[in-house]
From TrEMBL:
InterPro entries: CheY-like_superfamily, Sig_transdc_resp-reg_receiver, TCS_response_regulator. It holds the Pfam family Response_reg. It comes from Shackletoniella antarctica. This is Two-component system response regulator. The keyword Endoplasmic reticulum does not apply. The modification 4-aspartylphosphate is found at residue 59.
């Protein structure tokens, strides 16, 4: 029997963090949500001995280590290279989208400005990655 794996939210904006957590709670998912408020904390969590998260919701513009570098390091490790990573960001810049997918992002979602749309988008992300998508088995 395997434990429920957490969702890792990597977000430095307190308002976006609060909205995302509220939307994930609204989805009634059993998965706990672990928050990292900068890229360095995200990497420490991903590469810790703790079980891998089921999905990483990763912002691009982060203090200490940016989201693209976090993604690059996740994809460089055999243990984490299959870990689903969703870029959840306010950037709609083509170069950010292209670079994210080039580095192996599983999805790129621009944060809607409208609070209701933002909540619905995060709710759908949580449901998809936790309940619908077939995730790779965890690696030792």
């Amino acid at each position: 029997m395997s434990a429920v794996r957490p969702i890792l939210l990597v977000e430095d904006n307190p308002d976006d963090e609060r909205l995302t957590l509220r939307a994930l709670r609204r989805s009634n998912l059993a998965n706990p949500v672990v928050v990292a408020r900068n890229g360095e904390a995200a990497l420490q969590r991903v590469f810790s001995p703790e079980p891998l998260p089921c999905v990483v919701l990763l912002d691009l513009k982060l203090p200490k280590v940016d989201g693209l570098e976090v993604l690059r390091q996740i994809r460089a490790s055999d243990r984490t290279r299959l870990l689903p990573v969703v870029m959840l960001t306010s950037s709609s810049e083509d170069r950010d989208i292209i670079e994210s997918y080039s580095l192996g992002a599983n999805s790129y979602v621009r944060k809607p400005v409208n609070i209701d749309e933002f909540t619905e988008a995060v709710c759908q992300l949580g449901l998809y990655w936790v309940l619908i998508s077939e995730l790779p088995p965890t690696l030792p």
